[in-house]
Amino acid sequence: MSLLSATRSFTRSEGDMEVADNSGQQQLDPASVSRLQHPFLRTMRDRGYLFQCTNLDALDSAMMEDANFSAYLGFDATADSLHVGSLLQIMILRHLQKSGCKPVVLVGGATSKVGDPTGKDESRKMLDDESIAKNVEGISKVFEKFLTFGDEKASSDAIMVNNDEWLSSLKYLEFLRDMGTYFTINRMLQFESVKQRMSRDAPLSFLEFNYMILQAYDFLELSRRYKVRLQLGGSDQWGNIVSGTELARRVDRSQVFGLTAPLITTSDGRKMGKTEGGAVWLNAEKLSPYEYWQFWRNTADADVTRFLKLFTELPLPEIDELSSLTGSDINSAKEVLADAATSLLHGPGCLPSIHETASSLFASRGSPVFETSGLSRFPLPRSELGTARAASLFQALGLTGSKKEAKRLIQGGGARIGDVKIEDENRCLEEGDFEDGECVLRAGKKKAGVVFLE
């Protein structure tokens, strides 16, 4: 996606402050983009992360002048693990820290109770406090893999905060009186997240309608508590981010900034992180390192160079060399991508086992005996032998997204037990399918999982 892609913004001056909106059309000024000085913004530009900014020149100057510059990104706790769709934002935080700035990870313990309506046709499932606490614990693990956490006062040590600290203690009438006057219904109706829901005649509850106000208030609180001056996010969050910059300007007369990255889709138009087998989770207990590696190894040819820039830290000259590969040679670039991306999340120590599994699983169709330690695993009680259908187990292992999809895989001849093709969609696993208590199910040429007896 071009750095000069159109954004939905316009600016007007009010005193020495700039106000950004999300209506109209504007492009990032090519001159501003070309003369960026701060290492973080140059990285954003050169690796393809830069999409929208409320005031790029002023942000660049502010970052150059402030050695303790801090920025934040928010993540709602709607599941007990983040998935690859969130990885772009995590990589941005990592680059921010490497440039000497302070990353603030905001976990939405409170906003998870409301639900962001952006890009959705249905309201989120309501979560109780216990579920949200479990999800917060689950997603927090990932950030420690990419960021260095430490002293709140240290200039570049990352910190993690939860907006439940301030949002859950707000008194409703006082909040309405103090903050409600800064938001107009007319303006809120112009935000893309609202317009899209209404254009599809999808219900938008008053609860969800308040989400943008709460996100704006988060920015105000973070600017007060931690001197945060920049909110980062995906381009779908542009309206919410702009609301936060305006609220800080109008309430505290402070200049803060918003910057977004493009939403990433694959070359065939699919949303990043979604596959036929479901979400590509970042927590190892939900997706094995081998399956994660295989996801990147299966990247489409047209996406390899772009993903090397976005999801690895390989130097750009090295990526340029890999981008020149064509034909079957491009598989070497895919393996470099898979190794680099997997090392960042799971550590380089997992790669030898992954390589052994990949080699032994797919190099020879003649032997059903191979390394299985890197594959996803599912327990099967012995009492269910003869009744547990293979189609259900394909779904349980994440090899297909549903039993219906597993049945189509069987009908198409792509499902195997070891090296034996499954002919019957109602086929059940028997004692003879297991060797040393394990049975390998294979979906196509590149996906496999292990059912083990317990």
UniProtKB/TrEMBL annotation:
GO terms for biological process: tyrosyl-tRNA aminoacylation. The keyword Ligase applies. Residues 1-31 are annotated as: Disordered. Its EC number is 6.1.1.1. Gene3D superfamilies: HUPs, RNA-binding S4 domain, Tyrosyl-Transfer RNA Synthetase. It comes from the Eukaryota. InterPro entries: aa-tRNA-synth_Ic, Rossmann-like_a/b/a_fold, S4_RNA-bd_sf, Tyr-tRNA-ligase, Tyr-tRNA-ligase_bac-type, Tyr-tRNA-ligase_bac_1. Residues 1-12 have a biased composition (Polar residues). GO terms for molecular function: ATP binding; RNA binding; tyrosine-tRNA ligase activity. GO terms for cellular component: cytosol. It holds the Pfam family tRNA-synt_1b. It catalyses: tRNA(Tyr) + L-tyrosine + ATP = L-tyrosyl-tRNA(Tyr) + AMP + diphosphate + H(+). Belongs to the class-I aminoacyl-tRNA synthetase family. This is Tyrosine--tRNA ligase. It comes from Triparma retinervis.
